[in-house]
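Section 5.1 Outputs to date
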Amino acid sequence: MKCILVYGFLGSGKTTLIEKMLESGWICNAVILENEAGNHNIDSERLDGTGSRVIDLRSGCVCCTLRGDLNEKFRYVEKEIAPDYLIIEPSGIAALDELFTVPGIHIDATIALADVTKWDLLMKINRNFYRKQFALSPVIILTKTDIAAPEVRESVKNDISGLNPRAMTAFSGDELLEKYDIDDMCAFCSGFHNFIMNAGAGIPEYEMETFGFKVLGEDDLRKLADYLSDNIASFLRIKGNISTGNSTFTLDNAGQEISINETTGPHTDCSLFVCWKSMEDRKRTENTIRQLLHI
């Protein structure tokens, strides 16, 4: 069993990349270990649609509070399911150096996603921490390049090249999957040695909450989306699955906008993940969000 780690900050496109890996046949016979920092795993329904088995690790981060659970799930998958590949998607606040040292786990390849639209934000939040993560990444994909200005793409590319000149880089998940096969990538990762270590950077702390609620009316859904859009500067990440009874929608923030997209099939297990930029932002907006969700 080969273990593939897909790493990236909140909203960088980890789940989308994993979907492409599986739906294109780039990786076959895989189990996905999904780690959501909140109590509800919003992305697991999307990954269920790939036909692969999804195992949840919730309410914590696999690199710290759930290290023992990660080891246990890894051994269970390896012995009881025995797939060709295990894909681990850690929460967006995980630390690679901690994941690399979880006892009993060997990671064959690490792919880190760098959202070019949030690069400057990451450098402001915790420059040393995030520079360390990308310095440790053998494979780096720049995401959201289609919605970023050319000068922004070039600036982030130069930053990453200076930080990690030996990394295998791509400007999209599609480019990586087209240029390399999985065996080539794993071989490259096995020979990767990086000496850039920015010591002393702690894991940043964020204000996060996953709200569980019942069916919303369509007017309520629109009011929620409008409120989140009006206050978008307060959030690092928003995503959710919301049912209006007859229809089901995904809600997401792509850059600085809220998008609502209809999906297949109604359901009543609704959830909304919110990551605020600060405690002050949470205090200012949480009560209104709860009111709009009727909780």
